[in-house]
Amino acid sequence: MYPLRRNRRLRTNEAIRSLVRETVITPNDFLVPLFVVEGKGVKDEIASMPNYFRYSLDLLEKEVKELWGLGLKAVLLFAKVPDHLKDNKGTEALNPNGLMQRAVKTVKNACPDMLVMTDIALDPYSSVGHDGIVQNGMIINDESAEVLAKMALTHAQAGADFVAPSDMNDGRTLKIRELLEQEGFINTGIMAYTAKYASSFYGPFRDALDSAPVDLVDVPKDKKTYQMDFGNRIEAVRETLIDIEEGADIVMVKPGISYLDILRDIKNEVDVPVAVYQVSGEYAMIKAAAEKGWLNHDQIMLETTIAFKRAGADIITSYFAKDVVKLLG
Ligand SMILES: NCC(=O)CCC(=O)O
Ligand SMILES: [Mg+2]
C-alpha cells in the first residue's frame, strides 16, 4: 500500500498538533536576567537591547512583583557598577552593602518566594573589564577564584538562593562551595556557567553593564584565555563534569542558539539540571530583524525558546522570558 505511513495525519490541524507536541513552554522554564543600577526612579533602556532596561532598586521592586504575577519565579541579577568604584581587584564586589547585595535584599523583601540568583564574575567591577584579576597581561587564576568565592559569600549573606559563577576560571566552583560550606551556607546553591564560550554574542550585554575589556597595553583584548574556544565540543563536557565534581548543582551552556549541539551533549552526559543562556546578542539580532520587518518577532522568539527546551535545557535564561509568558497568555 502506498504510502506506507501518512505522518501528515498528526499535523492536520492545531488540535492534533498540540495533542502530540513533544515540547511545550511554561513560566516554570525561565530564569529572568535583570540589570540593576544606582539611583531612584531609573528605568534606562539599553541601546543595543530594545525594550530591555536597567532598574534602580525602587523600580526593581516593581518589576519583580510584575514578574511574579506572570508566574516567573526566578531571577538572575547583574549590577552596573559606577566607574569610580572599579579597580583591578574587584574590591567593590565584596562590599556587603554594594549594589548587588542590596539588590538581593530588595528582591527578597518585595517577593520573598522569588528565587534569586546572582552573577559571580569581576568584569562589572573590574577597571580593565575582565572576569578576574589581571597581572602582567594575564588573568591570574587562583587569586581570581579566591576573590570570586568571597564575592559569592557576600551574596549568600545578603540572601541569594543561588550564586552563578560566570567567569570560567579553573577551580572557582570548588572554592565557592568550600567557603559556603565553611560559613554555614549549606543550602546556597551554585549554578555554574560550565561551558561558556568566548563569543561575540555578548556585545550588547557589555554595553548594558559597561563591562567590556579596556584597550590598554598589558590588558588582554578578549577573554579567550579563560572562556572556551567555539571550535570545541568535547571540552564542554569535560568542563561540565569537573564543575559538577566541584559542587555545581546546576550547569549552564552559553550562548544558546549557536550552541544547541553542546546543550544536547551535556544533557546526555550529566545528571544535574542544565541551563542555557540566550544571550544579549541573540536578543539584539531578533529585535533588529523584527524592527526591519524581516522576521516575525513573536514567532522567532517562540521558535528559539522551544529549540532550547527541545535540545535539553531544563532552565532557559532569556531576555524574552516576560514576552514569551505574556504571549502564551
Ligand atoms: N555573564 C553574563 C555575560 O557574560 C553575557 C550575557 C549576555 O550577553 O547576555
Ligand atoms: Mg571550568
Keywords:
single chain; 329 residues; alpha/beta; eight-stranded parallel β-barrel; two-stranded antiparallel sheet; 12 strands; globular; binds 5-azanyl-4-oxidanylidene-pentanoic acid; binds magnesium ion
Taken as a percent bin, the fraction of beta residues is 15-25%
Number of helices: 11
Mean pLDDT: 98
Helix content: 25-40%
Name the ligand types: 5-azanyl-4-oxidanylidene-pentanoic acid, magnesium ion
The order of strands across the largest sheet is 1-4-5-8-9-10-11-12
Largest sheet: 8 strands, parallel, barrel
How far apart are the termini? 44 Å
Tell me the series of helices and strands, N- to C-terminal. HEEEHEHEEEHEHEHHEHEHHEH
Determine Rg (CA atoms, Å).
20 Å
- Alpha-beta classification: alpha/beta
Per DSSP E runs of 2 or more residues, the count of β-strands stands at 12
Unreliable segments (pLDDT under 50, ≥5 consecutive)?
none
Overall geometry comes to globular
